[in-house]
Amino acid sequence: MDGTFNENDISRVVEADRANVWHHLTQHQPFFTGADPKIIVEGKGLRVWDQKGIEHIDAVSGGVWTVNVGYGRETMGDAVRDAIVKMNFFGGTVGSIPGALFAEKLISKMPGMSRVYYANSGSEANEKAFKMVRQIAHARYGGKKHKILYRDRDYHGTTIACLSAGGQDERNAQYGPFTPGFIRVPHCLEYRKHEQDGAPEENYGEWAANQIEEIILREGPDTVGALCLEPVTAGGGVIEAPEGYWPRVAEICKKYDILLHIDEVVCGVGRTGEWFGYQHYGIQPDMVSMAKGVASGYAAISCLVTTEEVFDLFKEDTSDHLSYFRDISTFGGCTAGPAAAIENMRIIEDENLLQNTVDMGHYMVDQLKALQDKHEIIGDVRGKGLFVGAELVADRGTREPAAEAMVQAVVKDCMSQAVIIGATNRSLPGKNNTLCFSPALIATKDDIDQIVGAVDGALGRVFG
Ligand SMILES: Cc1ncc(COP(=O)(O)O)c(C=O)c1O
């Protein structure tokens, strides 16, 4: 390696990657026994090109439901460039022009919310919320009301505290011991209610919410500070809560004075066809975290948004030198994130992408449901907007999950057709059996036909 780079010789990059990069979520051994790491070189719209020049359609918005407005947006690049050339960074104790303007725009989309706290990643935004809950507990309740409830199958990030709030046992395996004070509540996946003791045929949503109340009563309501939930569970299997769930959840939180923290890291900024997932359900959260779609991956940004009531708790007592939120995120002071986020929101509005998400989401669900008639292996199709899952089962009667290796073989087969789809993986022991789709919000019917056509072929080849 002499440090020079010949653009026509991408093999130089592949070798540098193989020698020096540690990829996320990846077993590297195959890269030393014949396989090359994949390098994504360029993107435009829904398409990306790899090091061999092969064009792929990306049905998962950058692998992890992020690039909501699609690749190669010059105005996003312009917005970031203009912001950073003028003023790239100053620590978040002071304000910035993009930071103030994006906060104002964001709050205009979130009635009832009022304050934006900037950070870098979804995990970090969730950590901010956890810290606020703990600090409120100390300031007002002698430290007692500090417990944070999280739900089976939900994911809130990769740090130890976020994994402590993680409902995916396989993802958590080998990373304990975890932070105390995080308490699990049951999932609300109706398709798997037969695995939950006492789940009724009717009113499952209300029943699932009532399970949360039982846990609050078991723990003692005076010990529980917050409930943290994904509006639609993402990596845990694309789970939309059934009817009756959310109103009951909101009622329970109010009854026991428990803060409702909604993790919109995946759903936020358009993915489900509303600006935020929770807005489908008429509920009013106290805290909302968001990251991926906020700037569609053009810059790193996450936000924790709170109500004015929560904010007020941190400025009540000026005589107490500990009474404000004593937290910082160095790169929460970067202007690239909010500058990109302003442009990202403008694109979604000007191109009417929320409506497109609703329309194309319905189309995608319909197309996948049509595949169900053809492939016995598809047990359930579900989703909200352009956030869709297809759960594969070895037996439709018993709903026995399809083997993870077979599900991964479907993903691999699609990749060999240059179609990038996702699947739940290494998350839930024995239940990593849901194919995941989250194309950019600009997707067209033709794009969806191409994606679903590839899945059709793959299912035929893998399962016969
Ligand atoms: C629902 C949810 N919350 C939080 C996170 C963590 O976000 P990050 O990877 O940006 O830390 C993720 C990541 O996938 C997520 O899906």
From TrEMBL:
EC top class, as a word? transferase
Query: What keywords tag this UniProt record?
Result: Aminotransferase, Pyridoxal phosphate, Pyruvate, Transferase
Q: What is its EC number?
A: 2.6.1.77
**What would be an example GO MF term here?**
pyridoxal phosphate binding
Q: Which domain of life is it from?
A: Bacteria
What cofactors are annotated for this protein?
Answer: pyridoxal 5'-phosphate
Stored Pfam families: Aminotran_3
User: What PROSITE patterns is this protein classified in?
Assistant: AA_TRANSFER_CLASS_3
Instruction: Indicate whether Transferase appears among the record's keywords.
Output: yes
* Family, per entry: Belongs to the class-III pyridoxal-phosphate-dependent aminotransferase family.
Give the protein's recorded name: Taurine--pyruvate aminotransferase
Species assigned in the record: Ascidiaceihabitans donghaensis
Q: What is the lineage of its organism?
A: Bacteria, Pseudomonadati, Pseudomonadota, Alphaproteobacteria, Rhodobacterales
Gene expressing this chain: tpa_2
